[in-house]
């Protein structure tokens, strides 16, 4: 019976998509810096579920929240795997972090550790620390508004370092710089499109690192050493603190206390704690059928979160400043929590409650104290600019000229410090 079902499935069409070339597939048609733009253009022609081929890999792009939910949430057990090579550097043994784990026991251990530390009722423990970090962000912005990008990055890194390792960051912290450097490399270079090229031509990995064109290998080897430091150094710090009985609540101290003596968990705590951020593809475990189309086993599933957002919430583009989108016609808050940012199904972001509270406390604190305005030129006219975005597996706005000025004209560091101490 299962044989008949399988042969019937094999004759089903694949989802619609652009015509592939014999070896390249659709690789040549994809905007490699901003693939989501290509995926959006394809969706206008082919719809919400698109089949494409990158070299020898089947890639299905989900371009709407509806299809993403139908597959990744409602059929979660079939779509909770990760592609074999999410990252090019996985070829060189860089695959210990939670987002890259296949759907199996090691991943389950990682998720348990995250869940214990960051489930909704546990994540509230970190709120006083998050508020303290939001206040530090205000002081940094007041003192040195031109470097706002650095202050925002320091804010999010220092919350993660505190919640995961109970590590208090210092100004210009070397550990934060190291982690920022490693994350930058991952985001820029470790895209699923590049992983597909190396998966199709594994012999490329045999080229010596100095060979022209083998830059990915040089990069992967460098990344391997940076990532090893990123896993070992903060973990050793947290372990020492835990052993001396001095540690406050953190993901590592909670994990060590709970699973002490279980070697597989101790390794999982070390590996999972190095995870700071994910935006990564899913993979289909078995053949599946959706809307009359075949989704073959092993297919890489990419959700175009960017497009999902821009078509989300009554087609109001997320890049427009338009708070009205969160109100009902009668003026009450609607129930839109913009959940697609966290992904879907069993691989949904494991740090979402912590991250949500960090973003919220930082935004409300900044809006209370500052106005964010366009920068002015020498003649006092507003400087207009076209927003630009970084490329890679995650994207953020490129630094743009702006003025961050206190809403109260008499605000200085001393006043702000005293206001903060009254508020806490
Ligand atoms: C605003 C900040 C954040 C955003 C937008 C975000 C978003 C995401 C997204 C989209 C995924 C992929 C979900 C999927 O595959 O469907 C993910 C995975 C993940 N995130 Fe986050 N995340 C954020 C912050 C964090 C933080 C602070 C932590 C940890 C403290 C964290 C831990 C993880 C982990 C462990 C995974 C992998 C889950 C798995 O593969 O099972 N994230 N995140």
UniProtKB/TrEMBL annotation:
GO terms for molecular function: heme binding; iron ion binding; monooxygenase activity; oxidoreductase activity, acting on paired donors, with incorporation or reduction of molecular oxygen. This is Cytochrome P450. It comes from the Eukaryota. It comes from Rhizopogon vesiculosus. Pathway: Secondary metabolite biosynthesis. The keyword Protein biosynthesis does not apply. Belongs to the cytochrome P450 family. Heme binds at residue 349. Keywords: Heme, Iron, Metal-binding, Monooxygenase, Oxidoreductase, Signal. Transmembrane segments: none annotated. Its cofactor is heme.
């Amino acid at each position: 019976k299962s044989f008949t079902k399988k042969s019937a499935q094999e004759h089903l069409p694949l989802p619609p998509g652009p015509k592939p070339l014999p070896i390249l597939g659709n690789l040549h048609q994809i905007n490699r810096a901003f693939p989501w733009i290509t995926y959006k253009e394809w969706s206008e022609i082919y719809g919400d579920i698109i089949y494409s081929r990158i070299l020898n890999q089947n890639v299905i792009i989900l371009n709407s929240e509806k299809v993403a939910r139908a597959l990744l949430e409602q059929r979660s057990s079939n779509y909770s795997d990760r592609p074999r090579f999410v990252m090019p550097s996985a070829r060189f043994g860089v695959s210990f972090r939670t987002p890259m784990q296949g759907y199996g026991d090691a991943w389950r251990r990682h998720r348990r550790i995250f869940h214990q530390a960051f489930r909704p009722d546990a994540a509230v423990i970190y709120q006083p620390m998050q508020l303290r970090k939001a206040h530090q962000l205000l002081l940094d912005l007041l003192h040195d508004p031109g470097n706002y990008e650095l202050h925002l990055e320091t804010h999010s890194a220092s919350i993660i370092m505190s919640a995961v390792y109970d590590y208090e960051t210092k100004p210009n912290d070397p550990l934060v710089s190291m982690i920022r450097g490693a994350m930058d490399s991952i985001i820029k270079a470790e895209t699923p499109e590049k992983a597909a090229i190396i998966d199709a031509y594994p012999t490329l990995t045999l080229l010596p690192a100095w060979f022209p064109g083998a830059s990915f290998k040089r990069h992967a080897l460098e990344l391997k050493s940076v990532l090893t430091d990123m896993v070992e150094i903060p973990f050793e710090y947290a372990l020492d603190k835990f052993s001396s009985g001095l540690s406050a609540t953190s993901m590592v101290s909670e994990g060590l206390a709970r699973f002490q003596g279980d070697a597989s968990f101790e390794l999982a705590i070390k590996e999972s704690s190095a995870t700071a951020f994910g935006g990564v593809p899913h993979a289909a475990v078995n053949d599946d059928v959706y809307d009359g189309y075949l989704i073959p086993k092993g297919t890489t599933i990419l959700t175009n979160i960017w497009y999902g957002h821009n078509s989300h919430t009554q087609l109001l583009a997320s890049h427009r400043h338009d708070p009205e989108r969160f109100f009902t016609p009668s003026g009450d808050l609607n129930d839109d929590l913009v959940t697609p940012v966290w992904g879907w199904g069993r691989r949904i972001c494991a740090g979402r409650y912590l991250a949500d509270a960090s973003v919220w406390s930082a935004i409300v604190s900044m809006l209370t104290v500052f106005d964010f305005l366009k920068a002015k030129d020498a003649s006092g006219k507003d400087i207009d600019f076209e927003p630009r975005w970084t490329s890679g597996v995650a994207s953020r706005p490129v630094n743009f000229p702006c003025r961050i000025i206190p809403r109260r004209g008499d605000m200085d560091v001393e006043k702000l410090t005293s206001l903060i101490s009254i508020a806490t």
